[in-house]
Amino acid sequence: MSTLDWSDTLVLNQPELDHTHEEFVDLLNRFGDTLDRGEDALPAFKALLAHTEEHFAMEERWMAATGFEPENCHSSQHAMVLNVMREVVRYAEELGDREPMPIVRQELAQWFPGHAEMMDAALVYTMQQRGFDPATGEVKEPALEGATAGGGCGSSSCGH
């Protein structure tokens, strides 16, 4: 059973990010498959965590390059997700408690599409507006001094 299906609704038309997102979905599904088989899912979860750490670090670099506020909704969500994932690993390793794993599987599967659709889409839009090239790090249209690219959540409800 697939935990999360990759579909066109997850495509943001930014090749590097789309590829990274597809890898995330694949690793989430591998983790879920391992759980479904009743095997030790910790190694698969750690692979998902390692990928997610690099995935989010890449997005954080892009946000910094395009002028997102250092403390924004998008970054805050990344931090919260990573904190939960790291706690799942800690529980498994230090306490021998694997119970949070199936819970976090479902939570990640529910969270990711909305995050991609709102927050990551706002990042891609800002990258396009600034003429940001992720391969070189070059920004053709830097943010104006004192102006921000936004809170990073694609919503006016975020505090700035």
UniProtKB/TrEMBL annotation:
Pfam families: Hemerythrin. This is Hemerythrin. One of its GO terms (molecular function) is metal ion binding. The keyword Iron applies. SUPFAM superfamilies: Hemerythrin-like (SSF47188). It comes from the Bacteria. Belongs to the hemerythrin family. Residues 16-122 form the Hemerythrin-like domain. Keywords: Iron, Metal-binding, Oxygen transport, Transport.
